[in-house]
Structures
1.
Amino acid sequence: MTVVVDSCADVNLETLRRVALEGEGVRLSDRVVGHIAAVHRRFQDHVESHADGFIYMVTAGAGPDAKSHYSLEQARERRRRRQPFLGLSFGGDSLPQYVSRATIFAGISMLVSGHSATHPARAQAIVEMLDRELPRLPTRGLVAAGELMSNFVLQSRSSATIADEGFSAGTGNGSPASSAMAALAALFARRRLELSEVVFALSIEAIRAPLSHYHPALKELWKDPFAALALDRLGELLDGAAVIRRSTAAPASYRILPRVLGQARRALATLEEVATVALAQGVPNPAFIFEPLPGPEMSDQARQDGESRPEATVSNGSFHNSSVAPAIDSMAASWVEFGAIAQRHAVKLHKGGVSQLPDRLLPPGTDYVTGYSTTYLEYVPNQAVEEMRRLLQPTLLSPAETAASEQDDVAITAPVAFVAEREVSSRLDEVLAVLAVVCSQAIHLTGCSVAPRLETPLELIRELVAPVESRRQLGQECGRLAGAISAAIEHGGAELSDLAATKIGT
């Protein structure tokens, strides 16, 4: 399949998923190509009529050279020479190919909007980059004033010259990498949240927590729409669960689950909103502001009002999206809380006096020397949980001077937050794997059934880590389960919440 882009609205979370994660191609509609061409021609006239003025990256230099003025002939020569930099960045593992694809796709909205005044052949060449393998971005070395460092890597194989190409405004000089990182974090976060809810529901079943802890009447009492969503989700997963439960309240870590899950859903909603807005903005630096043309980018209100505004090329801060990092950080904070709750559940399930299950989940008549169980496995998540907490530092603007340039004095923050959230979430997958195995062991030991919606997830968990009945390398098996969970989140489908559409061992 191919994603056809007819307006900025076509660059969204769903189409980015298809292009970045499913590998689909992209095509600009004929109407959009005509719109891009018309704006490009208009921009050439604008430049000619303002040759003595300040047009950032045209009659003026870029970055530290912005104070210099160039004639149009000098500007053309500088464009022909292009930037002397290719890939400068390095450090850490390379980010997956889908990050590069998402970044190129996110930048298409700047072409479609017309505000970059890009030549249509240049726009087509950028779109066609998605037809081949792209350079992979490094984990580090991407933080600068704007996204020039990622551009140096991704544009290293772009076409050098295009016949009859005139001036453009800010082609590529926006924040597509930040937009892509927000979008990818949001896509994976929804999957990880839904998978986490499955594991926590299994934990509720393992300890036989009273279902009244998740009573639907709490939705009205709490008046929190996101906690209500969490209650609904737990209600779906626990529908048909055994009526006979423990007679006393479950530990607080079970009773607060709807609140913690609700906060994660709030963070996810914010992250999805930030990503959606960022993808559709289509504003580079500088941005060519023009009287709306009839076409896909002209708003209904503009048509009705006969809106008119003077042309201008506006130097602006579109290269710095300050909303992405806080939104990703908030999502990572929920992962840290999930890790703390999951680790607490793994401990409580092994404490017979609390869980009302056999102590240490050992078979009757045995102890931790003579019997086989998941006891001591609860130690394993401790380091991951502590590392998650250390990684969860707020991503703030750096007070340091970022480069030897008086102009480029504030660095972007999205790459730092994105990489940190990936590290945090991978550790959460390890903690969830341990809890899933402990829940499986508890349910196996008691011989109890689980709610119908949880039967398939339980079977899939046991395909990788069977209930413990002998001496085994349990850590290796749990490690494979954690890896399979991470892989399922990155490559899973719409039914990932059931752990059914994608077998987590494949």
2.
Amino acid sequence: MYGTSPGKQAGPPTGPAPWPKRPGAKPSTPWRRKVFREHLGLQRAGLAIGIDIGGTKVAAGVVDTDGQILSEARRSTPGSDPRAVEQVIVELVAELGADHRIRSVGIGAAGWMDLDGGTVLFSPHLAWRNEPLRANLQRLLRRPIFLTNDADAAAWAEWRFGAGQGEERLVCITLGTGIGGAMVLDGRVERGRFGVAGEFGHQIIMPGGHRCECGNRGCWEQYASGNALGREARILAAANSPVAQELLAAVGGRPDRITGAIVTELALAGDAACRELLDEVGEWLGLGLANLAAALDPGLFVIGGGLCSAGDLLVEPARKAFARNLTGRGFRPAAGIELAALGPNAGLIGAADLSRVSRRLRR
């Protein structure tokens, strides 16, 4: 349905390779744990508020040192006005801080931050362009503020409290409308030389392929995201394919209403066509992960985001395609591929914890 899917391209090996077992993480000695705690400030106590700013909602929670959410609050994202978003953050902090003694506030948002963590260089959902957000909020809240990318926050949470615990070189991939990503290497969020690392969804995986919103063609997220799954399902349904009749029935005969979430729901219920579509998305996912493994050599990939509700229907094809396309396959250790453990709260948990332990905190 995508033309030639990555698992069926010409060239050896032609059959699926056996999925290699993930090598165990290196044992963490008491000395190493002590150094990490002292180096990163992980021993710091106190409660923190984490705030995850999305395109439609702003979620906030009080988080303890074990990554547990003690209380939560939410608001709708107030359009794209930066001042209105700041006011929502002020309201959430006041509401959650009324019953808790708060040490700091961490904020995760989609977009590029400067290396100092004070300015949002660009955000796709909000009208933030070189916005000095940390200074603005410190003036309004009179509290320590930590600002980070939402994918970085989620990766940190999975490394500290979720599926990535014990892994020294972790890559997190989030599958939703597009593909986000982040890295935690040797106990630090790796942001790159200019602070904009992790845009994995825009590696070009099919030259001349589907047009991406970034302006390029053939980006990975055009083949392995929730949007890609919905697009291919709409194409199939619009052709009135006999294998798409259950899919059409689910949307009242309106192909334009089909989304990746609907396809996933039907696949989980057993629909063969939807399972085939998910299988193809999984193959593209595995191919992109193999590319990342060749460049980054992580010990573990953690896959999060809304599309992961498909579970093994997505991950098993990804594992097979990864093993089949990994450079040096059969002669090298292979990274594991696991589903994220913390769900949609990973961003706010990670932002809160980073605000507590990061040395970039400013008062």
3.
Amino acid sequence: MAIKGQKFKRYSETLKLEAIRLHVEEKWTYRQINEHFGIQDKKPNETIDAKITGTR
């Protein structure tokens, strides 16, 4: 749940597509992708992945 005044991070479309490409084609884990791009939370990757691949 969001906290009042909380700032949400936004990621560029190119970063999102590259993250999904790494996950699908290169078989990188979400943890590896997060460390590579400096993403704090793993949930954005799973959500983006689900939207692109049609799973969930």
